[in-house]
Amino acid sequence: MADVLSVIPAAVLRNLSDKLYEKRKNAALEVEGIVKQLAVAGDHDKITAVVNLLTNEFTYSPQANHRKGGLIGLAAATVGLTSEAAQHLEVISDLLCVPDLVK
């Protein structure tokens, strides 16, 4: 997780779980830009770490705002991956099996 914190600033992670949608949206746009840079650099280990962080720490959280931030963050990360999304799609698509998130 320390590796991810060096990639995504703490303020962005904090804003992903904010109660205001605008803050979550802006944080997700920053995640998209970061993932886009990582995809261009071919750093798939860090991309995997970002996806795992968003999945484990946000989307599986019992707090609703964390889950919302995790989902919008994963959507932004997928957009940032563009044509390289197939490598990480299995982890992202597993979220569809979580009943609380599909409601």
Set down the secondary structure blueprint.
Layout: H1 2-7, H2 10-16, H3 21-41, H4 44-59, H5 64-81, H6 89-93, H7 99-102
Helix pairs in contact: 2-3, 3-5, 4-5
Can you give a write-up of this model?
It contains seven helices and no strands. The chain has helices spanning 2-7, 10-16, 21-41, 44-59, 64-81, 89-93, 99-102. Helix 2 crosses helix 3 (21-41) and helix 4 packs antiparallel against helix 5. The protein starts with a helix and ends with a helix. The model has no long low-confidence stretch (mean pLDDT 86).
Assembly state (oligomeric): single chain
Biggest sheet statistics: none
| β-sheet strand percentage | under 5%
Percent helix: over 70%
Low-confidence stretches: none
Mean pLDDT: 86
Could you give the order of the helices and strands?
A: HHHHHHH
Rg, nearest Å: 12 Å
From the N-terminal CA to the C-terminal CA, the straight-line distance is 29 Å
- Count of DSSP-assigned helices: 7
**Strand elements, count:** 0
Number of domains: 1
Structural class: mainly alpha
**Global outline:** globular
Summarize the structure.
With 103 residues, the protein is mostly helical. The protein has helices at 2-7, 10-16, 21-41, 44-59, 64-81, 89-93, 99-102. The protein is globular, with a radius of gyration of 12 Å.
Keywords:
75% helix; 103 residues; single chain; globular; mainly alpha
